[in-house]
Amino acid sequence: MDAxxxxxxxxxxxxxxxxxxxxxxxxxxxxxxxxxxxxxAVVLPGSTRELAAVMALCHAADxxxxxxxxxxxxxxxxxxxASGEEVLIVLSxxxxxxxxxxxxGTITVEAGVVLADAQRAAAEHGLLLPLxxxxxxxxxxxxxxxxxxGGLAVLRYGTARExxxxxxxxxxxxRIWDGLTALRKDNTGYDLKQLFLGAxxxxxxxxxxxxxxxxxxxxxxxxxxAVRDLEAAxxxxxxxxxxxxxxxxxxxxxxxxxxxxxxxxxxxxxxxLDAAYEHYVLLxxxxxxxxxxxxxxxxxxxxxxxxxxxAEDGVIAATGVHRAxxxxxxxxxxxxxxxxxGSVKHDVSVAIARxxxxxxxxxxAVAAVAPAARLSVYGHIGxxxxxxxxxxxxxADPEAFRAAHGEAVSAxxxxxxAALAGSFSAxxxxxxxxxxxxxxxxxxxxxxxxxxxxxxLDPKGVMNPGKVL
Length: 469
Ligand SMILES: Cc1cc2nc3c(=O)[nH]c(=O)nc-3n(C[C@H](O)[C@H](O)[C@H](O)COP(=O)(O)OP(=O)(O)OC[C@H]3O[C@@H](n4cnc5c(N)ncnc54)[C@H](O)[C@@H]3O)c2cc1C
Fold this sequence. Notes:
The chain has 4 domains: 3-90, 2-Layer Sandwich (Uridine Diphospho-n-acetylenolpyruvylglucosamine Reductase, domain 2); 97-215, 2-Layer Sandwich (Uridine Diphospho-n-acetylenolpyruvylglucosamine Reductase, domain 3), CATH 3.30.465.10; 219-334, Alpha-Beta Plaits, CATH 3.30.70; 341-419, Alpha-Beta Plaits, CATH 3.30.70.2740. The protein contains 16 helices and 18 strands. The chain has helices at residues 3-13, 21-24, 48-60, 115-123, 141-146, 154-157, 193-196, 230-243, 256-265, 294-307, 320-331, 333-339, 355-369, 398-419, 435-441, 444-457, and strands at residues 18-19, 41-43, 65-68, 87-90, 97-101, 106-110, 127-128, 164-170, 176-179, 205-212, 214-215, 219-227, 248-255, 279-287, 311-316, 348-349, 374-380, 385-391. The strands form 4 sheets. The chain has a 7-stranded antiparallel β-sheet with strand order 15-12-14-13-17-18-16, with helices on both faces. The chain has a 5-stranded antiparallel β-sheet with strand order 5-6-10-8-9. A 4-stranded mixed β-sheet has the order 1-2-4-3. Helix 1 runs antiparallel to helix 3, helix 8 (230-243) runs antiparallel to helix 10 and helix 9 (256-265) packs across helix 12. It is globular and about 70 Å long.
């Protein structure tokens, strides 16, 4: 990079928008500590205009740009490469809630708004932004949309993509595409926003979005149930939808080893049941209209599940504090894995009916290549999505285990998903971690279309180079 570029960046964003070398370190390593990059500059634009000027400058100078939100992504998509030539563009200062429209049920937010802050802004108007995940205290709307994040309420409300009405995007050359519409019906030509949702910053930088809001649930019922096995968990999902209807909001699965990792990492967490079981479901139902019967319906479901032999034990949250404690068990599984030295993570999905077969196949395939490895299996089974994570054997060095067996273990798990017509990336994206996997498994026609779209929007290839494609 020519020395003058840094000066010109400084001229656009001012001293508060250009990070010095010492402070830059925290932006250059990914959430999982797998990727360590270097950057010619770490820039934090304070407005869409500044962002556009930064991008136009980098584009003209043929400098690669890497967007970063909360840096909680699991695939290294927000980490620059090791060349030290790319500019890292951090969106944290684009953090204004521009508007909430209670009648239309929309919120207009800038890309750097932290997800939990956007939820709070909606709640102040009695409305629900249903996107929710364990990282919500630090991940940002721009990152959520660029990864098409899933999370804990997809079953009821869909993935991030399904919550978006409009986008404002800065293209690689600095032009601003104003697609910030709040229209719920708009069939005027191609739906351009879809290109940027899930694109992981390879086509442009999302600077703002209009998101759908929903009535705030007046009643919530949350149950932690020990179930016989994964097959029983899937049968319970069906029963829940028959008995309680479309108010089933979350249906999460946790195995005993995953629970134990969370319990070991967080001393404030408690196993809510007296005995230990191998399989658990965290079920949440919520309703905003006529709510009277919800508690009875969930109690009835629990009894039916016990009678049918699907559930073996369980507890229904009695208070909000109790509910939060149950959710903390599920949400702290990733932290538990991290505290145990990390895992070889997988984010696979199949049709829900095939989940038990997926788990069995993947376990057998992993045992064949790493017999002593420990499994931590949990996930959003209401969406057919398992996090089938593999840890080093007890007492073994996690880093050495990953280096020796990580590749074979991942091939085993991804092979099991592929054999069942599943996906190797249900919700975490591709980034740099799974780029080769995408190239190896996607059809040549699909890859040709993706590369064509990339070429139209980013002919110079300066937008998040080396990621996704
Ligand atoms: C404890 C924990 C729990 C998690 N749970 C879930 C879960 O349940 N479901 C789930 O889907 N994920 C989950 N994640 C993963 C992660 O939080 C999500 O992928 C999240 O959407 C990433 O947001 P971010 O702001 O941190 O993005 P980053 O990590 O900063 O970036 C992710 C990608 O988006 C790009 N990007 C960021 N901002 C923009 C922008 N404004 N415009 C264009 N591109 C951009 C980056 O270049 C990168 O490619 C979890 C992570 C943790 C640590």
